[in-house]
């Protein structure tokens, strides 16, 4: 690990975060050498998308390396024009006044008055405006360091060396298709790190999964060796508040190892792995079952027994699905369960399931929720259901001894699809599925996956 808690030279920033300067310049210089940057030539890093994780990722880089202004530039792009409503402005004002360090910073920057005026309803704040002051619209309660915000996409990306994809999977293709127009004259390809967790199903010819990194490569023609995925069991706000966390950066060795060293901090340990697409797909899979977990929690008044029953069934379905997707699925068990666990505890997809079951949200409100951002599990439910319904993927049913689509052995996934996508069932149907007397022991599903030749490399676009 780079450095230690006791030996790190620290610098207190105005947002209250602690800057670790020990070794930062060496790590930056190492990455610059890998990228072939000449002395005096800035390393330009830009985040695309300003959701909670995208903003925290940019802020962590700014805290760690922003003081090295002659060597690196860190910026973030978000769309302009998103107004902050009155209720959010009032809450933001309370957050500011409850944090003395934030209050003093805004006063020093002559930025406090606009928040007073917004609290009184005398002016409108905008999301890009408050982000410059360190406030992410999807994470108001966790002030960040001030960020350099760009609202013109072409200006943000045209000469970037490293692009961080913080967009939802549902928006990734569209935005990177636009970005590709600005990269037509580039001589070299940038490095792209995708934080996005979600998938699409492609059903024509050979049914397969399309991940955000694949969307980016197809949209921009950037080779996959220059595109990486970073994910792990973490909550964005907790990571920024220095809770100990870990993540994996996955992709080709040429870039993943130097980037792992560059991103690693004493409280944020980054490992590296070559299996990009499978880890990316697993990041989308856990969001599917997190929604159902939230529903069960709300409908049973947080019954520990009911939640454990659900956990047993949903994990057996996830293990079943990983046997279709991975040649060595046992290697994914730890990372997948850890990511699932933290999402069930505090993730937005579990929260969304709770709000639906309580009636505080409705499906008609869509899957982009104020203060939370995009609920990516909804589209992932549809994608996994459609993909696993294909007859070309049929497996042998253990009792009926006949070929069936894999989805027929995933009753939780089927129920979530009928609640969220076709809307045939209310949220209460998730409990009925759990209490179905004909449902098999979760262990049986795992044994089915382990006893048959399940692996389908074509699902991940492999021969």
UniProtKB/TrEMBL annotation:
It is found in: Cytoplasm. Residues 275-430 form the Glycerol-3-phosphate dehydrogenase NAD-dependent C-terminal domain. The keyword NAD applies. Keywords: Cytoplasm, NAD, Oxidoreductase. GO terms for molecular function: glycerol-3-phosphate dehydrogenase (NAD+) activity; NAD binding. Pfam families: NAD_Gly3P_dh_C, NAD_Gly3P_dh_N. It catalyses: sn-glycerol 3-phosphate + NAD(+) = dihydroxyacetone phosphate + NADH + H(+). Residues 147-247 form the Glycerol-3-phosphate dehydrogenase NAD-dependent N-terminal domain. Belongs to the NAD-dependent glycerol-3-phosphate dehydrogenase family. This is Glycerol-3-phosphate dehydrogenase [NAD(+)]. It comes from Protea cynaroides.
């Amino acid at each position: 690990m780079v450095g230690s808690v006791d030996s790190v030279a620290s610098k207190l920033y105005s947002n209250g975060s602690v800057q670790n300067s020990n070794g930062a310049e060496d790590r930056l210089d190492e990455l610059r050498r890998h990228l072939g940057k000449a002395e005096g030539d800035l390393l330009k890093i830009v985040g695309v998308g300003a959701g909670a994780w995208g903003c925290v990722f940019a802020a962590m880089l700014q805290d760690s390396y922003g003081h090295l202004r002659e060597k690196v530039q860190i910026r973030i792009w978000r769309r302009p024009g998103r107004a902050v409503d009155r209720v959010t402005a009032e809450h933001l004002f309370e957050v500011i006044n409850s944090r003395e360090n934030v209050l003093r910073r805004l006063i020093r920057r002559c930025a406090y008055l606009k928040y007073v005026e917004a609290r009184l309803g005398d002016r409108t704040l905008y999301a890009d405006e408050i982000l410059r002051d360190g406030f992410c619209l999807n994470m108001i309660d966790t002030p960040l360091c001030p960020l350099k915000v760009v609202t013109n996409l072409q200006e943000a990306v045209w000469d970037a060396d490293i692009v961080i994809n913080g967009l939802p999977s549902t928006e990734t293709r569209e935005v990177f298709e636009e970005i590709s127009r600005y990269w037509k004259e580039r001589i070299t390809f940038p490095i792209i790190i995708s934080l996005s967790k979600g998938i699409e199903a492609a059903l024509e010819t050979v049914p397969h999964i399309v991940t955000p990194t694949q969307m980016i490569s197809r949209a921009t023609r950037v080779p996959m060796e220059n595109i990486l995925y970073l994910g792990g069991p973490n909550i964005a706000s907790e990571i920024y508040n220095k809770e100990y966390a870990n993540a994996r950066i996955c992709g080709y060795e040429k870039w993943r190892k130097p980037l792992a060293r560059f991103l690693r901090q004493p409280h944020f340990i980054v490992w590296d792995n070559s299996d990009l697409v499978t880890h990316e797909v697993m990041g989308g899979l856990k969001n599917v079952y997190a929604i159902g977990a939230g529903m069960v929690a709300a409908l049973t008044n947080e019954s520990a027994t009911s939640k454990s029953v659900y956990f047993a069934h949903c994990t057996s379905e996830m293990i079943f699905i990983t046997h279709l997707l991975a040649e060595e699925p046992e290697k994914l068990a730890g990372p997948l369960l850890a990511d699932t666990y933290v999402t069930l505890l505090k993730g937005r997809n579990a929260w969304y399931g709770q709000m639906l079951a309580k009636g505080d949200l409705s499906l008609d409100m869509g899957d982009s929720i104020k203060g939370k951002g995009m609920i990516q599990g909804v589209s992932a439910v549809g994608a996994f259901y459609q993909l696993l319904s294909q007859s070309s993927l049929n497996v042998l049913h253990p009792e009926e001894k006949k070929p069936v689509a894999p989805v027929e052995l995933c009753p939780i996934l089927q129920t979530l699809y009928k609640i969220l996508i076709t809307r045939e069932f209310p949220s209460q149907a998730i409990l009925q599925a759990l209490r179905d007397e004909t449902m098999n022991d979760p262990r049986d599903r795992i044994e089915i996956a382990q006893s048959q030749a399940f692996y389908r490399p074509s699902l991940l676009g492999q021969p």
